[in-house]
Amino acid sequence: MSRQQRSRGAPRPRQVLGLGVNGKVLECYHRRTGQKCALKLLYDSPKARQEVDHHWQASGGPHIVRILDVYENMHHSKRCLLIVMECMEGGELFSRIQERGDQAFTEREAAEIMRDIGTAIQFLHSQNIAHRDVKPENLLYTSKEKDAVLKLTDFGFAKETTQNALQTPCYTPYYVAPEVLGPEKYDKSCDMWSLGVIMYILLCGFPPFYSNTGQAISPGMKRRIRLGQYGFPNPEWSEVSEDAKQLIRLLLKTDPTERLTITQFMNHPWINQSMVVPQTPLHTARVLQEDKDHWDEVKEEMTSALATMRVDYDQVKIKDLKTSNNRLLNKRRKKQGGSSSASQGCNNQ
């Protein structure tokens, strides 16, 4: 951890602001300055320290919630870490759009928001960090003011993409899903899929994939995600530009390796020329307002979908081809005249 301090000068916590992946987020005030902050309490563990390290490394990056201080303390007789962050008083991204009422939300505004989120992801990916949990409740505004800044928070699932990387993945589809080609590409592409879903909701007010059964993530919904089954139905999509639809298609590719990288995303005309994106009024605010009761379900579905995409390589047991006793593999060995050619093919990857 980059910085650890004792609790003597720590701000006093007040009300609960939210729940992160690994711990509560509380409102607090600095004793000396009176500054309002957010305080996250994590019970000390390697996972908690990893979260702090990744967030600390990203802190100060564009459109990322800043860490102000980190303290060590005891809580219920357990060692804990207290992360003091800037307080994001403007609420969640989609709540802000919901609250607009009759005021039109335009395609250009959607492009500017996506550029801001993309800027945060670009910074993280340049630091070899995949966030892996980019979703509506982790996108917060600094204040209620018109010029408030949108920022990304909660690094509970963040992962360093170069750490413990599998240099030459040596596996067959019998043991690991074939599309999992290595942590860097896979984990970063998880963030790109998230950008596609958030962009889709921004432009119409409902998600591209949804469950028909009331489950957070149904087998049918899983299948639609895997097959990339979604559409651009009217009237919500009738006026949206072809550029926007094309960008969504490139982000929601079913094969993670075919999705745009963050650099390609930031260089797409709809993002890097957002000032000339048409100011077409969208249905988003109306749809979000009408579907307010279902919004928690939408967030739950996205959380579940992201959970199925995350692959933790330290938990994946990859069988060695030389010692494997798989029947099909043994057949192939006999056919090819021994195990040398099988392992040779693997080493040449």
Short description:
The chain has 349 residues and is of the alpha+beta class. The protein has twelve helices and ten strands.
| Model regions low in confidence, pLDDT < 50 over at least 5 residues | 1-9, 164-183, 339-349
Instruction: Indicate the overall shape.
Output: globular
In the CATH hierarchy, what is the architecture of the largest domain at level 2? Orthogonal Bundle
Strand content: 5-15%
Biggest sheet: strands, sense, closure? 5 strands, antiparallel
H/E element order:
EEEHEEEHHEEEEHHHHHHHHH
Per the CATH scheme, the topology name of the largest domain is: Transferase(Phosphotransferase), domain 1
**What is the CATH superfamily classification of the largest domain?**
Transferase(Phosphotransferase) domain 1
Rg for CA atoms? 22 Å
- Helical proportion? 25-40%
The CA-CA distance between the termini, in Å, is 36 Å
What number is the mean pLDDT?
Answer: 80
In terms of topology, how is this protein built?
Elements: E1 12-19, E2 24-29, E3 36-43, H1 46-58, E4 67-75, E5 78-86, E6 91-92, H2 93-98, H3 107-126, E7 129-130, E8 139-141, E9 150-152, E10 159-160, H4 183-204, H5 219-227, H6 242-251, H7 262-267, H8 269-272, H9 284-290, H10 295-309, H11 327-336, H12 339-347
Helix pairs in contact: 3-4, 4-6, 11-12
